[in-house]
Structure to design on (230 residues):
């Protein structure tokens, strides 16, 4: 009796291809700004809002902070004019580097639709 | 009686040596963040507060934005613990470059003594 396997629990091929980077699961409305081109992140933000998200949080550290500001500005000036910067938080995180712990600045920019 | 000059309100020699860049006169409590080492700006902010200024505004454009956040964080974490980030504004400025006008992001971080 050949049982049929329930294909539901199988991992998707996409998930198998990239097991290297293990990120902690982020909230759906958070976009982490890294070293990719600015427009990649702009597109991610627009996609979030088009899916009906009320507000989107941009998070960045270190040198990526300026890019996060670029993303916020380009998104609201060129693509989603109703968008408002609802809050900006800055902070400091300790990062373990090769020569011990160093501090790195962080930023969180909360974008939301204007009311 | 060779008094040492307080040199506070006078132009420093360094300021005279570099007349090429013509900046509009800034308010006393504004610190423009550029490409110098972070600690230079931290010192400038501390000096402002020690002269009795109620709040200090850090202004930066483009890639210097991350440095402005560093200055704010280092100043309030290491040197002036009572300091609060009172407001953060982001914006866009048009800059005339070699290939026409380009947009650059700006930031203003308002630091003040906590009440």
């Amino acid at each position: 009796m050949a049982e049929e396997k329930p294909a539901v629990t199988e991992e998707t091929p996409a998930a198998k291809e990239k097991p290297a980077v293990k990120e902690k699961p982020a909230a759906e409305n958070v976009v982490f700004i890294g070293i990719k081109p600015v427009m990649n992140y702009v597109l991610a933000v627009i996609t979030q809002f088009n899916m009906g998200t009320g507000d989107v949080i941009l998070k960045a550290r270190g040198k990526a902070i300026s890019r996060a500001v670029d993303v916020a500005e380009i998104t609201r000036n060129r693509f989603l004019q109703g968008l408002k910067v609802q809050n900006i938080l800055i902070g400091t995180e300790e990062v373990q580097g090769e020569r011990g712990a160093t501090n790195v600045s962080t930023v969180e920019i909360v974008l939301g639709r204007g009311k």
About this structure: The first strand of chain B starts at residue 30 and ends at 32. DSSP finds three helices and four strands in chain B.
